[in-house]
Amino acid sequence: MAKIILFTHQKGGVGKSTLSFNVANLLNQHAKVGLIDWDYQGTLLQVRELNDQLTYIDVDRDVKKIPHSDFDFIIIDTPPYIFEEIHALVKLANLIVIPTQASINDLLAIDKTVQIIKENEAVDRSIIVFNRIKSNSSLKEKLTENFNELQIPIANSIINDYDAITNSIVTKGVEVKHKANNQLQNLTTELITKLLSNG
Ligand SMILES: Nc1ncnc2c1ncn2[C@@H]1O[C@H](COP(=O)(O)OP(=O)(O)OP(=O)(O)O)[C@@H](O)[C@H]1O
Ligand SMILES: [Mg+2]
Protein backbone atom coordinates (compact mmCIF):
# COMPACT_ATOMS: atom_id res chain seq x y z
CA MET A 1 0.00 0.00 0.00
CA ALA A 2 1.35 3.40 -0.97
CA LYS A 3 2.07 5.97 1.70
CA ILE A 4 0.20 9.12 0.74
CA ILE A 5 1.86 12.50 1.27
CA LEU A 6 -0.46 15.47 0.86
CA PHE A 7 0.92 19.00 0.37
CA THR A 8 -1.72 21.49 1.35
CA HIS A 9 -2.31 25.05 2.52
CA GLN A 10 -5.22 27.20 1.44
CA LYS A 11 -2.88 30.13 0.79
CA GLY A 12 -1.37 30.54 -2.66
CA GLY A 13 2.33 30.67 -3.43
CA VAL A 14 3.65 29.03 -0.26
CA GLY A 15 5.50 26.29 -2.16
CA LYS A 16 3.04 23.37 -2.27
CA SER A 17 3.80 22.56 -5.91
CA THR A 18 7.52 23.22 -5.67
CA LEU A 19 8.05 21.14 -2.55
CA SER A 20 5.76 18.31 -3.64
CA PHE A 21 7.67 18.13 -6.93
CA ASN A 22 11.08 18.09 -5.26
CA VAL A 23 10.13 15.56 -2.57
CA ALA A 24 8.60 13.33 -5.28
CA ASN A 25 11.72 13.72 -7.38
CA LEU A 26 14.08 12.77 -4.55
CA LEU A 27 11.98 9.81 -3.37
CA ASN A 28 11.71 8.66 -6.98
CA GLN A 29 15.43 7.84 -6.96
CA HIS A 30 14.82 5.05 -4.45
CA ALA A 31 11.15 4.12 -4.63
CA LYS A 32 8.13 3.88 -6.87
CA VAL A 33 6.49 7.30 -6.72
CA GLY A 34 3.26 8.58 -8.25
CA LEU A 35 2.53 12.31 -8.46
CA ILE A 36 -1.03 13.67 -8.48
CA ASP A 37 -1.77 17.29 -9.43
CA TRP A 38 -5.10 18.02 -7.74
CA ASP A 39 -4.93 21.70 -8.68
CA TYR A 40 -6.90 23.13 -11.62
CA GLN A 41 -3.95 25.49 -12.21
CA GLY A 42 -2.04 22.35 -13.18
CA THR A 43 1.36 23.72 -12.13
CA LEU A 44 2.95 20.27 -12.14
CA LEU A 45 1.03 18.93 -15.14
CA GLN A 46 2.27 21.88 -17.20
CA VAL A 47 5.85 20.64 -16.83
CA ARG A 48 5.04 16.96 -17.18
CA GLU A 49 6.84 16.63 -20.51
CA LEU A 50 10.04 18.08 -19.03
CA ASN A 51 9.95 15.51 -16.21
CA ASP A 52 9.73 12.13 -17.87
CA GLN A 53 11.55 10.69 -14.84
CA LEU A 54 8.29 11.05 -12.84
CA THR A 55 5.06 9.10 -13.02
CA TYR A 56 2.03 11.37 -13.11
CA ILE A 57 -1.28 9.83 -12.07
CA ASP A 58 -4.60 11.21 -13.28
CA VAL A 59 -7.43 10.33 -10.93
CA ASP A 60 -9.89 12.96 -12.18
CA ARG A 61 -10.05 14.42 -8.67
CA ASP A 62 -11.76 11.24 -7.49
CA VAL A 63 -10.40 10.01 -4.16
CA LYS A 64 -11.64 6.50 -4.90
CA LYS A 65 -9.44 6.31 -8.02
CA ILE A 66 -6.13 6.71 -6.15
CA PRO A 67 -4.12 3.58 -7.08
CA HIS A 68 -2.80 2.62 -3.65
CA SER A 69 -1.32 -0.71 -4.61
CA ASP A 70 0.79 0.46 -7.56
CA PHE A 71 3.24 2.74 -5.72
CA ASP A 72 5.41 3.04 -2.62
CA PHE A 73 4.57 6.74 -2.27
CA ILE A 74 1.86 8.90 -3.77
CA ILE A 75 2.48 12.65 -3.57
CA ILE A 76 -0.50 14.96 -3.95
CA ASP A 77 -0.29 18.69 -4.72
CA THR A 78 -3.44 20.65 -3.88
CA PRO A 79 -5.03 24.01 -4.83
CA PRO A 80 -4.74 27.27 -2.84
CA TYR A 81 -8.30 27.21 -1.54
CA ILE A 82 -10.60 24.91 0.37
CA PHE A 83 -11.88 22.40 -2.17
CA GLU A 84 -14.51 19.68 -1.99
CA GLU A 85 -12.23 16.69 -1.50
CA ILE A 86 -9.87 18.22 1.05
CA HIS A 87 -11.48 16.48 4.04
CA ALA A 88 -11.38 13.08 2.33
CA LEU A 89 -7.73 13.62 1.34
CA VAL A 90 -6.74 14.69 4.85
CA LYS A 91 -8.44 11.59 6.26
CA LEU A 92 -6.65 9.39 3.75
CA ALA A 93 -3.16 10.89 3.88
CA ASN A 94 -0.42 9.23 5.91
CA LEU A 95 1.38 12.57 6.08
CA ILE A 96 0.14 16.12 5.53
CA VAL A 97 2.78 18.72 4.74
CA ILE A 98 1.86 22.37 5.17
CA PRO A 99 4.48 24.63 3.59
CA THR A 100 4.49 28.21 4.83
CA GLN A 101 6.59 31.30 4.53
CA ALA A 102 7.57 33.05 7.72
CA SER A 103 5.28 36.04 7.65
CA ILE A 104 2.30 37.41 9.52
CA ASN A 105 0.19 37.01 6.34
CA ASP A 106 1.04 33.35 6.13
CA LEU A 107 0.33 32.85 9.81
CA LEU A 108 -3.09 34.49 9.48
CA ALA A 109 -3.92 32.46 6.37
CA ILE A 110 -3.03 29.08 7.85
CA ASP A 111 -6.01 28.94 10.21
CA LYS A 112 -8.54 27.25 7.92
CA THR A 113 -6.07 24.56 6.93
CA VAL A 114 -5.20 23.94 10.58
CA GLN A 115 -8.90 23.74 11.42
CA ILE A 116 -9.42 21.03 8.77
CA ILE A 117 -6.43 19.09 10.12
CA LYS A 118 -7.88 19.25 13.64
CA GLU A 119 -11.44 18.38 12.55
CA ASN A 120 -10.10 15.26 10.89
CA GLU A 121 -7.88 14.28 13.84
CA ALA A 122 -4.78 14.51 11.68
CA VAL A 123 -2.53 16.65 13.93
CA ASP A 124 -0.04 13.83 14.56
CA ARG A 125 0.14 13.11 10.83
CA SER A 126 0.80 16.75 9.93
CA ILE A 127 3.90 18.91 9.71
CA ILE A 128 4.46 22.59 8.98
CA VAL A 129 7.50 23.32 6.81
CA PHE A 130 9.06 26.78 6.63
CA ASN A 131 9.84 27.51 3.00
CA ARG A 132 11.43 30.39 1.08
CA ILE A 133 13.17 31.69 4.18
CA LYS A 134 15.50 34.52 3.22
CA SER A 135 19.04 34.05 4.47
CA ASN A 136 19.79 36.45 7.34
CA SER A 137 16.08 36.85 8.05
CA SER A 138 15.01 36.58 11.68
CA LEU A 139 11.29 36.47 10.86
CA LYS A 140 11.05 32.73 11.42
CA GLU A 141 12.50 33.05 14.94
CA LYS A 142 10.24 36.02 15.69
CA LEU A 143 7.16 34.06 14.64
CA THR A 144 8.08 30.68 16.13
CA GLU A 145 5.98 31.21 19.23
CA ASN A 146 2.91 32.14 17.13
CA PHE A 147 3.34 29.12 14.88
CA ASN A 148 3.81 26.88 17.96
CA GLU A 149 0.44 28.04 19.24
CA LEU A 150 -1.19 26.31 16.24
CA GLN A 151 -0.22 23.01 17.93
CA ILE A 152 0.82 21.38 14.67
CA PRO A 153 4.31 19.82 14.63
CA ILE A 154 6.93 22.01 12.89
CA ALA A 155 9.70 20.46 10.79
CA ASN A 156 13.30 20.92 11.91
CA SER A 157 14.29 21.22 8.25
CA ILE A 158 13.80 24.61 6.68
CA ILE A 159 14.09 25.56 3.03
CA ASN A 160 15.70 28.86 2.08
CA ASP A 161 14.85 30.96 -0.94
CA TYR A 162 17.02 29.76 -3.82
CA ASP A 163 16.81 30.50 -7.54
CA ALA A 164 17.70 26.84 -8.07
CA ILE A 165 14.48 25.86 -6.28
CA THR A 166 12.40 28.40 -8.25
CA ASN A 167 13.65 26.78 -11.45
CA SER A 168 13.63 23.21 -10.18
CA ILE A 169 10.37 22.09 -11.79
CA VAL A 170 11.84 22.77 -15.23
CA THR A 171 15.33 21.45 -14.52
CA LYS A 172 14.35 17.99 -13.22
CA GLY A 173 15.08 19.14 -9.67
CA VAL A 174 18.06 20.87 -8.10
CA GLU A 175 21.66 20.03 -8.99
CA VAL A 176 23.07 17.49 -6.52
CA LYS A 177 25.96 19.69 -5.42
CA HIS A 178 23.78 22.75 -4.78
CA LYS A 179 23.15 23.69 -1.14
CA ALA A 180 19.42 23.73 -1.85
CA ASN A 181 19.60 20.05 -2.68
CA ASN A 182 20.93 19.30 0.83
CA GLN A 183 17.99 21.14 2.35
CA LEU A 184 15.48 19.31 0.15
CA GLN A 185 17.18 15.97 0.98
CA ASN A 186 17.07 16.74 4.70
CA LEU A 187 13.40 17.64 4.46
CA THR A 188 12.61 14.45 2.52
CA THR A 189 14.45 12.34 5.13
CA GLU A 190 12.60 14.08 7.95
CA LEU A 191 9.24 13.49 6.24
CA ILE A 192 9.94 9.80 5.66
CA THR A 193 11.18 9.38 9.24
CA LYS A 194 7.95 10.90 10.51
CA LEU A 195 5.89 8.74 8.16
CA LEU A 196 7.58 5.58 9.34
CA SER A 197 7.35 6.52 13.02
CA ASN A 198 3.60 7.10 12.57
CA GLY A 199 3.33 3.50 11.36
N1 LIG B 1 12.35 27.59 -1.59
C1 LIG B 1 12.09 28.33 -2.67
N2 LIG B 1 13.04 29.12 -3.20
C2 LIG B 1 12.78 29.89 -4.27
N3 LIG B 1 11.61 29.93 -4.91
C3 LIG B 1 10.61 29.17 -4.42
C4 LIG B 1 10.80 28.32 -3.28
N4 LIG B 1 9.61 27.69 -3.04
C5 LIG B 1 8.75 28.12 -3.98
N5 LIG B 1 9.33 29.02 -4.80
C6 LIG B 1 8.70 29.78 -5.89
O1 LIG B 1 7.59 30.48 -5.33
C7 LIG B 1 6.50 30.50 -6.23
C8 LIG B 1 5.30 29.83 -5.56
O2 LIG B 1 5.63 28.46 -5.33
P1 LIG B 1 4.61 27.31 -5.66
O3 LIG B 1 4.00 27.50 -7.01
O4 LIG B 1 5.28 26.04 -5.39
O5 LIG B 1 3.52 27.62 -4.54
P2 LIG B 1 2.08 26.97 -4.38
O6 LIG B 1 1.78 26.95 -2.95
O7 LIG B 1 2.00 25.70 -5.13
O8 LIG B 1 1.20 28.06 -5.12
P3 LIG B 1 -0.36 27.88 -5.54
O9 LIG B 1 -1.06 27.92 -4.25
O10 LIG B 1 -0.63 29.07 -6.41
O11 LIG B 1 -0.50 26.57 -6.22
C9 LIG B 1 6.96 29.78 -7.50
O12 LIG B 1 7.42 30.74 -8.42
C10 LIG B 1 8.13 28.92 -7.01
O13 LIG B 1 9.06 28.69 -8.01
MG1 LIG C 1 0.68 25.08 -6.62
Automatic annotation (TrEMBL):
<dbReference type="InterPro" id="IPR002586">
    <property type="entry name" value="CobQ/CobB/MinD/ParA_Nub-bd_dom"/>
</dbReference>
<dbReference type="InterPro" id="IPR050678">
    <property type="entry name" value="DNA_Partitioning_ATPase"/>
</dbReference>
<feature type="domain" description="CobQ/CobB/MinD/ParA nucleotide binding">
    <location>
        <begin position="5"/>
        <end position="159"/>
    </location>
</feature>
<dbReference type="Pfam" id="PF01656">
    <property type="entry name" value="CbiA"/>
</dbReference>
<dbReference type="InterPro" id="IPR027417">
    <property type="entry name" value="P-loop_NTPase"/>
</dbReference>
<protein>
    <submittedName>
        <fullName>ParA family protein</fullName>
    </submittedName>
</protein>
